[in-house]
Structure formats: structure tokens, C-alpha cells
Amino acid sequence: AMEKGYVCIFLLLIVISCALAKDAGKKDSKDTTAKPKLPQTLSRGWGDQLIWTQTYEEALFRAKHSQKPLMIIHHLEDCPHSQALKKVFAEHKDIQKLAEKFILLNLVYETTDKNLAPDGQYVPRVLFIDPSLTVRADITGRYSNRLYAYEPSDISLLYSNMQKALKLLKTEL
Known about the structure:
Strands 2-1-3 form a 3-stranded mixed sheet, covered by helices on one side. It has a domain at about 55-165: Glutaredoxin (3-Layer(aba) Sandwich), CATH 3.40.30.10. By secondary structure, the chain is mainly alpha-helical. About 45% of the residues lie in helices and about 10% in strands.
């Protein structure tokens, strides 16, 4: 009677390990067909193929030394407006391409720098900073009560504002 018990347990182990292996196999095959994804930690879904800085201080340092403008996106994971903007931003091929010319930072918390909240702390908001570390308060969205807010329908305006941030840079330097 003892032996039968062992056989049952042994079979159960085989079934479990096969199921786990099958799961792992599924995951692998899915990943290989898609582009290899970088860990999403810093991008938080705003562009997994882009290089994102980790802190505001690092972003300022890189902007200054690379002579690239800095683009800062303030957002929150549980804010539906942030989520909606993130989705169109991440799926917009031209924006993702243009974003490579920027130092990039997305933040889910506020910094102590009041210059990053010229008209208040709201999300989502997008600000540009040039390599001289001046906040480009002149590059705004379409809402007079929240100058740096963008809705998903404003994505082409955000794109042209990114171009503006790069263009003005060339003429000023």
C-alpha cells in the first residue's frame, strides 16, 4: 500500500513540472516574436525602447553635458488622463523617433524645483528644459488653465512642441 502512495505523489510532481515548463515555454516564444523589450522600470511604458534618466538631477546633468534639451513628463500610474496620454505617446511612431533627440525623464512624484510647476502641480504635464537649464515656460499646450497639460487629442501639438524645443535650441546656440 505504501508504494502506491509514492507513485501518486511522483506522478503529481511530473504533471506540475510539465505544466510549469509549458508556461515558461509559452512566455519565451511570445518574447522572441516581439522586439526584445528593455526592462520597463524607467520608461514606465512611455517608450520602452528609449533611454530614460532615473532622477531629475541626472537628467539636468545629461542635458547640460550632451547639449540636448530635456523633456520631463509628470504623470501618475492611477490617473486615467496620464494613462491615456501615455498610450498615444508610446504608440506615436514620429514622437518615439523624435524623443531620441532628447534627454528623457518621466516622474510619478514632484521634485522640489518650483520651476517644474510654473502654474501648479497637476498631471499629466510636459515641460521642456534647454541645455542652459532654463525651463521653457513658453512651450505650452492648448489649455490656459493648465499650460503644460496635453490630452490624447493634443498629441500632434505635443509633437510640434518637441520640434519647437529642438529648433529653438539650434538658433540660440
